[in-house]
Design a protein that fits this description.
Elements (H helix, E strand, L loop, with lengths): L9 H17 L5 H7 L6 H13 L3 E2 L8 E2 L1 H11 L7 H12 L6 H16 L2 E6 L7 E8 L4 E8 L4 E7 L6 H15 L4 H14 L6 H16 L7 E5 L1 H8 L5 H13 L1 H10 L6 E4 L11 E10 L2 E11 L4 H20 L8
Antiparallel strand pairs: 1-2, 3-7, 3-10, 4-5, 5-6, 8-9, 9-10
Length: 358
């Protein structure tokens, strides 16, 4: 038991872990007497009740008005997932299935492979499996080629690290010769390969601010081009999202949700744009990422948790794999699953034959 991030003492951490695991198992408010009866803590029900009251005051537990027991809060689930959950190894069936669906796909069948991974995660967890490629605007750029067009138009041919290509026309204030655009292409590829459009623009702005007295014409031209591309690209676009098992969420919550709430949840999962934004946030972390309950800022997902892990291509993170499920779920198992799936996808995409030692 780690209990480090939230600085809980051993006894308090034990009681919180027991309360959350009991709630995950039974889906009922947890009373001190139940913990005393089912866990060998050598603590009286009164002592456990006092600890639970302290945990409630600290925001880890809450007490429904209609019950004498307590239930975990978003903060409690985060503490449990980060510090208290048992991170066990995966079974042979789980690892072999994930490897099979990852490596049996032929080259060029990336989307089929990602769809198969989301299906496997849904089957193993009985939740919704989710795999997403970052949107083009937020994806790292591998290579750019600028081509001179007529009427002060420049064609930007952009290739992302995921292999997607997009052509974008940018109108400029002046006419550029192709020689200048070739220099600009080389400058972009030498300096900014692996970055997305908006970070490129910000780095150029910072460079110009730092060197106010002498701004190289190439840098100024690069900033103008990066700004034009960033403005034309929609950072909120969906990218490619593969989801399997959304019906599992409905089945588990049908008794708690009204018909209008079920329809709103299905609409959110079907539109996928909001999920794409959450997955893009995940790309900023190299570890398991947790979004619990209201942290998603999506009303329809306030009773759910999203557990994700980014995966990489040859030049950086290009997507994420995850599971959406109810807040009371087996965090230890699911965190291990998404981390392993992300690792295997990264190995497949980078051509690395050695698995990372965990």
């Amino acid at each position: 038991m780690r209990a480090q991030t939230f600085n809980l003492d051993h006894r308090t951490a034990q009681v919180l872990k027991a309360a959350i695991e009991s709630y995950i198992e039974k889906a009922e408010p947890v009373a001190a007497r139940s913990i005393s009866r089912n866990y060998a803590f050598n603590l009286s029900p009164a002592s456990i009740r006092n600890v639970m009251a302290d945990l409630e005051d600290a925001g880890f537990l809450s007490k429904p008005h209609t019950s004498a027991g307590r239930v975990p809060s978003d903060k409690g689930y985060r503490c449990y997932a980060e510090d208290l959950a048992t991170h066990r190894g995966l079974g042979v069936a789980e690892t072999e299935r994930i490897r099979k669906v990852t490596f049996c796909s032929e080259a060029g069948e990336l989307k089929e492979m990602l769809s198969s991974v989301s299906h496997a995660l849904s089957e193993f967890t009985s939740q919704a499996g989710l795999v997403g490629l970052s949107s083009f605007a937020s994806a790292p750029v591998k290579k750019v080629k600028f081509v001179n067009m007529e009427d002060n138009l420049v064609l930007a041919v952009i290739i992302s690290t995921g292999g997607e290509m997009r052509n974008q026309l940018v109108r400029t204030d002046e006419h550029f010769k192709q020689d200048d655009l070739d220099k600009l292409s080389n400058y972009f590829n030498d300096r900014f390969s692996g970055l997305a459009l908006e970070p490129i623009r910000k780095k150029l702005l910072a460079e110009i601010k730092k060197e106010r007295a002498r701004v190289d014409s190439l840098v100024a031209m690069a900033l103008a081009m990066a700004t034009g591309l960033a403005e034309k690209s929609d950072v909120n676009e969906e990218g490619s999202i593969f989801m399997d098992g959304a019906s599992n969420l409905i089945d588990q919550h049908s008794a708690k949700l009204s018909m209008s709430e079920i329809k709103a949840l299905l609409k959110t999962l079907d539109e996928k744009k909001k999920l794409a934004l959450l997955l893009n946030e995940c790309l900023k972390s190299k570890n398991v990422n947790l979004i619990i309950g209201a942290e998603s800022e999506i009303e329809e997902l306030k009773d759910f948790s999203l557990i994700t892990h980014s995966f990489s291509g040859t030049e950086g993170a290009i997507g994420a794999v995850g599971v959406i499920g109810p807040r009371p779920m087996d965090y230890g198992k699911i965190m291990a699953l998404v981390a392993y799936a992300a690792e295997q996808i990264s190995i497949k995409l980078t051509g690395c034959n050695e698995e990372i030692t965990r």
